[in-house]
Amino acid sequence: MSFLKNLTKFPKSAIYGIAFLIAGWAWFFFTLYILFREIPGKILIVGIGIIFLVFKGYNWARILCILFNLLMVIYVLFFAFHLWGIGRGSEALCFAGNIILFGYSGYYLFVKETSDYFKSINEQDKKAEKDA
User: Fold this and answer.
1) Of all helices (H) and strands (E), which one includes residue 126?
2) What is residue 112's three-state secondary structure?
3) Exposure letters 10-36 (e unless 16+ CB within 10 A, then b)
4) For the segment 70-94, what is each residue's pLDDT rounded down to a tens digit?
5) Is 62 exposed, middle or buried (0-12, 13-18, 19+ CB in 10 A)?
6) Are 122 and 3 in contact (CB under 8 A)?
7) Where do the domains of the chain lie?
8) 56 CA to centre of own chain
9) What share of the chain is helix, strand, coil (3-state, %, to 5)?
């Protein structure tokens, strides 16, 4: 929980990473709603869970989020190309927004400044547990 206590010490890269992550998931849900007129509940739970765990400051969650963002970019890229190929260009452009948002989120969560910050938060939590 110390991550939430240190909000004033956030590096800009962590703020950008989390902001792009939230925007990416919001845009992904918006795009799913535009295409299918519904948002699958399991995907909603996964998205909220990822955002919560990264925001909480777990370094392992940040690493998994980076990998998940990479997979989302690849998945959405293929889906966008498929939509473009069948003549649904406007829906493909909606997915292009997801590629940009998840890509930037993964980048900002990956940079050294963010990585060092998450590692320091986890080290502080481990020291606090040992002292208790």
Assistant:
1) helix 112-131
2) helix
3) ebebbebbbebbbbbbebbeebbeeee
4) 998 998 889 888 888 888 788 888 8
5) buried
6) no
7) 34-117
8) 13
9) 90, 0, 10
Determine the residue type at 110: F
Cα–Cα distances in Å, from 26 out to 21, 63, 82, 97, 131? 9, 21, 22, 11, 40
**Per-residue pLDDT reduced to its tens digit, 97-130:** 889 999 999 999 999 988 888 888 777 766 666 6
Is residue 88 packed enough to be buried (19+ CB in 10 Å), middle (13-18) or exposed (0-12)?
Answer: middle
Virtual torsion, Cα 2, 8, 10, 12, nearest 10 deg: 170
Q: What does the pLDDT read at residue 70?
A: 92
